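Cross-check.
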Amino acid sequence: MRVSTVILPIHRWSEGGREIWQRAEELGFHAAYTYDHLSWRSFRDGPWFGAVPTLTAAAAATSRLRLGTLVTSPNFRHPVTLAKELITLDDVSGGRITLGIGAGGSGFDATTLLRGGEEPWSPRERADRFGEFVELLDRLLTDDAVTYEGTHYSAYEARNIPGCVQRPRLPFAVAATGPRGLRLAARYGQAWVTTGDPKISETGTPADSLAAIGGQIERLGKACAEAGRGAGDLDKIFLTGFTPDGTAPLSSVDAFVDFAGHHAELGIEEIVLHWPIPDSIFAADLGVFEKIATEGAAQIAGYAGPDRRHGSSPEKGRARAARIAR
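Predicted model, tokenized:
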């Protein structure tokens, strides 16, 4: 199991931003991601910088750390322009970029670009656009020249030479929980991302959350089987902070190891922690957080996960979750 962090793009580069990304590398995190939004929830009225320029600066300031988005969406991106930026970013970083990608939600990103009187996309339209977005982006990052005509997106002789440093393209980490999204993850993803089940984030229990994630992993396995892939072909990434546990896993090294171990038993292979932000929903003790990054990560680093061990299955993972809940 790997431990990564997500650093929100709220820090001026000259006032501590550079140092945070460099510190993430020093602490040994597997990867450091950032959100790709125009603004986000309670941070809307404060500093918020662009994801791609931030990651470009982070790539220049680090040398080993993997970097990426959690997550990019079609809400304000077009595949043609995004592909050009990603190829450049992959080049600048020396092939250290992972693209976290999702369908997007109904927040600020979904309304900022609307004309007066326009309605935001419905969930169905977001899913339709997401399917085209991923398909076209896959081709743009893989082929030298692409012509594509879809319902929502098109490209005419779009050229992306020399392509990604990573071949055949940089990896996609697809955030999905519904059937259509899981099918996209199974077809195009090198990884799958979950934040848990939003329906139980405020009213459920940690045991409910474990069961829900176990169910998601089982459905992902079925989608992979339908696509002719094994569930183990996709890394399983858990972005924390949105389950009933809240920030409790960051209260101590022992609390984190216990929390991470329970999710590792389900098949989660990478766990992502928000870099602490005072006076926010991501508030946590920075000293404890750094100990978790070193001591806690060392305790779970050797865990291979149920998909990697003989005789394991999603059903056994869910059985383990039930034992944990008891």
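Confidence is low (pLDDT under 50) at residues 305-326. The two ends are 24 Å apart (CA to CA). Passed to J.P. for a second look.
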